[in-house]
Write a structure and sequence with these properties.
Helix content: 25-40%
Distance between the termini: 42 Å
Domain ABC transporter: 20-257
Largest sheet: 6 strands, mixed
GO molecular function, one term: ATP binding
Radius of gyration: 19 Å
Number of strands: 10
Pfam family, one: ABC_tran
Bound molecules: adenosine-5'-triphosphate
Strand content: 15-25%
Strand order of the largest sheet: 6-7-8-3-9-10
Protein name: ABC transporter ATP-binding protein
Order of helices and strands: EEEHEEHEHHHEHEHEEHHH
Keywords: ATP-binding, Nucleotide-binding, Transport
Structural class: alpha/beta
Shape: globular
């Protein structure tokens, strides 16, 4: 299978090993082929946006990378470890090195925000309770929530606050990688821009690697270093400028369509 036009495997010793590395990934559901030779390298500190038409397999790829699903073929390495070859213990300790924000925040509805943030800390560390409390409060502040939001239940929060609470939980263990599934979906444009800004500033201050599935062109322009586009069951990867020069019909329509032009103009203004 020919490689994606912009994909070039990392070689030589001058480049650090990628934080996420996917090779020859294939996914099939019965007769339906979703991925057929997906290759991807994400470097430390990069912000990568994954886009593609509806049903092209973005969520499935994300789920495969974080180990919630197994691909039909191919390899996935995260932080240097082959995710298919891990013992349960190794898998748990690898999982503690990334945070995941699901679309709706995926908070436990019967727990307060602070209790939600404490879940991974209790699961993966043996820290004393007062330190766990303190860390949870720091995470609430880090995502820009008022201190009193910590004692609220998810149902008492707005959609934007729930996302911030989910982000605080994803950051609980000081992860190296942040996975985001449609982080700005359901937010109004101002809320979405504020959330992008938050992700961008956390990424810089914490040196995070960010991998996000998104439909939001403004997010791509605002915070992504490179974009991975799922087309024809493979990834085409590049900077926005590189993708703007692509003549694949879907990529052209996406970036040069009215919404793409508006996002480009907003970035320039
Ligand atoms: N567990 C599953 N069993 C069978 N088919 C599945 C399963 N999960 C996903 N699929 C199929 O795989 C394809 C890709 O799904 P996926 O949810 O990854 O798309 P997507 O690109 O995230 O779409 P959207 O942008 O609409 O959310 C779809 O056709 C979906 O029906």
């Amino acid at each position: 299978m020919p490689p994606s036009p912009f994909f070039s495997p990392i070689s030589g010793s001058d480049m650090a090993a990628p934080v996420i590395s996917v090779r020859g990934l294939k996914t099939r559901f019965g007769a339906q082929v979703v991925h057929d030779g997906v290759d991807l390298d994400v470097q430390k500190g990069e912000v990568i946006g994954l886009v593609g038409g509806s049903g092209t397999g973005k969520s499935v790829l994300l789920r495969e990378i974080v180990g919630l699903m197994d691909p039909s073929a191919g390899t996935i390495q995260v932080l240097g470890q082959d995710t298919a070859r891990l013992s349960e213990r190794e898998r748990l300790s690898l999982q503690a090195r990334w945070g995941m924000l699901f679309q709706d925040g995926a908070l436990f509805s019967s727990l307060t925000v602070l209790e939600n943030i404490k879940v991974p800390l209790k699961e993966h560390t043996a820290l004393p309770p007062d330190l766990v409390d303190e860390i949870a409060q720091v995470k609430v502040a880090m995502v820009g929530l008022a201190p009193d939001a910590g004692s609220k239940y998810p149902s008492q929060l707005s959609g934007g606050m729930r996302k911030r609470a989910g982000l605080a939980r994803a950051l609980a263990l000081d992860p190296e990688i942040l996975f985001l599934d449609e982080p700005t979906a359901g937010l109004d444009p101002i809320g979405a821009a504020a959330f992008d800004e938050l992700i961008g500033s956390l990424q810089k201050s914490l040196g995070l690697t960010v991998f996000m599935v998104t439909h939001d062109l403004d997010s791509l322009y605002a915070i992504c270093d490179r974009i991975a586009v799922l087309v024809d069951k493979k990834l085409v990867i590049g900077t926005i400028d590189e993708l703007l020069r692509q003549d694949h019909p879907w990529i052209r329509d996406y970036f040069h369509g009215p919404r793409g032009r508006a996002a480009n103009a907003a970035k320039g203004s």
